[in-house]
Amino acid sequence: MAVRPLNVLFLCTHNSARSILAEALLNHLGEGRFRAFSAGSSPRPNQQPNPLGLQVLREAGIPTEGLRSKSWDVFAAPGAPVMDLVVTVCDGAAGEVCPVWPGQPARAHWGYPDPSAGDAPDEVKLAAFRAVRDRLRARLTKLVQRCPAGADAAGLQRLALELATEGDDERAV
After folding, report:
1. Under a CB-based contact definition with an 8 Å cutoff, are residues 45 and 121 in contact?
2. Residue 9 CB: number of other CB atoms within 10 A?
3. Where are the domains of the chain?
4. How many whole angstroms separate alpha carbon 20 and alpha carbon 81?
5. What single string gives the DSSP state of each residue in 76-110?
6. Hey, which residues are catalytic here?
7. Which one in 21, 120, 127, 149 has a CA-CA gap of 20 to 30 Å to 2?
8. Cα separation of 29 and 12, whole Å?
């Protein structure tokens, strides 16, 4: 009997940078064992993924087709995929009251700085996007390597929190 992929939802306030990076990376790294999604607590009207985020994903050979910004309400609605793990990747979303997720998924906070913040030139922001991409890739690689197929909720919660406290390699390349 085949084990279904684990559904993982990455949350950030606007769902335009960090959560989009995490979604694309886990779908790429997860070898079919994970289905990643992303959403935001308050995406702006007509919000799109940040073009610099899409650029650094393409640089790394990670598909960007189908990535879009959306509200987290999509995943709390009837008929939405049931999540096994919900991870906030920005401090803003971590401090907000989240919807009640069907299935009572494991939860963790893995904070990353906003690579799109400020008025820096695009080349500086591009370097920030690459750094966040690489740090996320390091942590998500550990998740994929350590998570057994068909992990139960308690085991997934322990692993997600372990990865949160362990951190990731800020020098990841």
Report:
1. no
2. 28
3. 6-166
4. 18
5. TSTTSPPPSEEEE-SHHHHTS-PPPPTT--EEEE-
6. 12, 90, 98
7. 21
8. 20
Task: Give the chain's largest Cα–Cα span.
Answer: 52
Q: With CA atoms as reference, report the closest residue to 71 among 11, 31, 25, 116.
A: 11
Spatial neighbors of 2 by CB under 8 A, at least 6 apart, are none
Residue with tokens 């690489």, as numbered in its chain: 134
Q: CA 95, CA 88: separation in Å to the nearest integer?
A: 9
Residue with tokens 């559904």: 7
> Each residue of 120-149: pLDDT tens digit?
999 999 999 999 999 999 999 999 999 988
Superfamily of domain 6-166: Response regulator (3.40.50.2300)
pLDDT digits (tens, 9 = 90+) for 144-166: 999 988 888 899 999 999 999 88
Compute the distance between CA of residue 155 and CA of residue 17 in angstroms, rounded to an integer. 28
Q: In whole angstroms, how far apart are CA 137 and each of 36, 81, 92?
A: 13, 24, 21
The pair of three-digit structure tokens given for residue 35, joined into one six-digit string: 């289905």
CB atoms within 10 A of CB 81: 14
